[in-house]
Design brief:
Blueprint (H helix, E strand, L loop, with lengths): L1 H11 L1 H17 L3 E7 L3 E6 L4 H8 L1 H18 L7 H19 L5 H14 L5 H25 L3 H19 L7 H18 L2
Antiparallel strand pairs: 1-2
Helix pairs in contact: 2-4, 2-5, 3-6, 4-5, 4-8, 5-8, 6-7, 7-8
């Protein structure tokens, strides 16, 4: 029963899973000196590079959290702008938006392997020339990685727990999309500026 339920959830969530792997690939393609070596749209992305740091690995591993969430928010916001569901066309369009937004949100959270990888790279860097940087910025990096690691570890224990966490995150995304939870525009702009500056530093 558990296997059938797991398979049913997998196929229901397939569009989000595909976008999850595409999100990984997009960040890999944007980063210099890193390239995709294998892309399986239903399971994983493999990559290599001679300048693969913990920071870059973090960006790649958590890419779906940002990209899938943004796509889900776009779908929810578009849905919130529909005022009349009287026609079959609009009703069908709304159902599609709900489905896509759910699958995108469901596939946003990191897997246990994605959550562990940046920390593994960080540990390896302790024994390199980047030792001082790891000591200085490692605690902050671990602090940022810990929530994803905890969530992915808990969800890996049971398909039912995984679905529950996905539903809770989807509710959070829907609340933002319908503007029930409001995000300060200034804070959002500052966050985007920070991410842009951070990316510019990485690509120098």
């Amino acid at each position: 029963m558990n296997a059938k339920f797991k398979n049913a959830f997998y196929y229901f969530n397939l569009p989000g899973i595909v976008m999850n792997e595409i999100a990984h690939a997009i960040i890999i393609l944007l980063l210099p000196h890193v390239k995709v070596t294998k892309l399986n749209l239903t399971s994983h992305v493999e990559y290599e590079g001679y300048y693969t740091t913990a920071t870059r690995t973090f960006l790649i591993a958590y890419a779906p959290l940002f990209i899938n969430t943004i796509l889900s928010l776009i779908c929810v916001y578009t849905l919130s702008q529909i005022n009349n569901f009287g026609s079959i066309k609009l009703f069908t369009y709304s159902i599609i938006l709900i489905y896509v937004s759910l699958t995108m949100a469901f596939s946003s959270l990191p897997s246990i392997s994605d959550a562990k990888l940046p920390l593994k790279i960080l540990r390896k860097q302790l024994f390199t020339k980047k030792f001082i940087l790891v000591v200085l910025f490692g605690p902050l990096f671990i602090l940022l990685s810990t929530p994803g690691l905890i969530i992915s570890y808990i969800s890996s224990k049971s398909i039912y727990i995984q679905i529950l966490l996905c539903i809770l995150y989807s509710i959070f995304v829907f609340l933002i999309g319908f503007e029930i939870i409001e995000i300060d525009i200034y804070v959002l702009e500052q966050s985007l500026d920070f991410l842009n500056d951070f990316y510019q530093e990485l690509t120098k």
